[in-house]
Write a structure and sequence with these properties.
Distance between the termini of chain A: 50 Å
Radius of gyration of chain A: 18 Å
CATH architecture of chain A: Orthogonal Bundle
Largest interface: A-B, 61 and 61 residues
Largest sheet of chain A: 3 strands, antiparallel
CATH class of chain A: Mainly Alpha
Shape of chain A: globular
Structural class of chain A: mainly alpha
Number of helices of chain A: 6
Strand content of chain A: 5-15%
Order of helices and strands of chain A: HHEHHEEHH
CATH superfamily of chain A: Winged helix-like DNA-binding domain superfamily/Winged helix DNA-binding domain
Oligomer: homodimer
Number of domains of chain A: 1
Number of strands of chain A: 3
DNA sequence: TTCAAATAATTGAAAATTCATGTTATGACT
DNA sequence: AGTCATAACATGAATTTTCAATTATTTGAA
């Protein structure tokens, strides 16, 4: 009946980095399964959701959707072929390429957002409001610290 | 000089799932770069570290290292070829395959663990002891909740 | 006991990712 | 203006991952 271990989770590590990775995958698993049932890759969801807020340059978008730039370039080729996003060159900089959703892409994003928000509500139910607030604050702080100026 | 945006992080989402994913990647980035300098894939580190605690079956290990089974199977082929791990069949169940480190694998794990621990210390410096404790507790709770019995 | 369903792991073909490099555009400095 | 370093994105080849079977073993129900 049980696929996993009996009562204790197999938990070899206590590293914060590991707990974050594991929490990330397990918390997202259900929503990702939902996307999968709809035949939508996670990257597609992230990309259309991001650019429907605001057009983004490729490298900026790569940072947001947590992909490497060449991976994203190729994902964009696919999404462009599906008519979900468009690449746009602007006058301010001729090397930047801005990505924006097509009407179809925007509709897809709008269709998925309520599902994402519902999932968010479900997740937050596992925490008290205070815990949730502190958790998010801690995560934002870690992100801010580790992402500030990567001129290494 | 700055690769990223000027002063604010590009932060389109406030979903906990997204903050977890982003915190996970940004917190781990430095350690992952260190592994990369050593020519060691992240998966190799995770696998040898996991099995040097305790031999694990393939599916159990897949859960721990956050990989899908087929992905892990093939990663194990590579690690076995490099002489870092061994597959072992036991009497208790002839379909399970246990993975354990070779001497070389164990040495690799022992060499990397201090680096991981050092990284952990660095990360924890960003939080007060109380914050760190609460953060880990919240993460463990989320993990426990979302991983308990996936008999869906 | 027997047989169908479930579990554990592997495999092969297709798809996506990665690494290194290529191309073009900017910026800075002389 | 000319040169050099850097930034932004794309691309090709190699590697890895994924999806959908397949094989082998175990469970359990009739």
């Amino acid at each position: 009946m049980k696929t996993q271990e009996q009562d204790t989770l197999a938990y070899p590590f206590d590293y914060l980095a590991y707990l974050l990775a594991r929490a990330s995958t397990s918390v997202s698993a259900e929503f990702h399964r939902e996307l999968r049932r709809l035949g939508i890759p996670v990257s597609t969801w992230r990309i259309v959701a991001s650019v429907s807020e605001k057009a983004r340059s490729v490298s900026e978008l790569a940072g947001i959707v947590l992909m490497q730039q060449p991976t994203l370039s190729k994902a964009l080729d696919r999404l462009e072929a599906q008519g979900l996003v468009e690449r746009e060159r602007r006058e301010d900089s001729r090397r930047k390429v801005y990505v924006k959703p097509t009407e179809k892409g925007r509709m897809l994003a709008e269709r998925l957002k309520p599902k994402a928000q519902l999932h968010e509500q479900e997740v937050l139910k596992e925490l008290t409001p205070d815990e949730a607030r502190k958790l998010k604050a801690a995560l934002r702080r870690l992100i801010r610290h580790y992402e500030r100026d990567n001129s290494t």
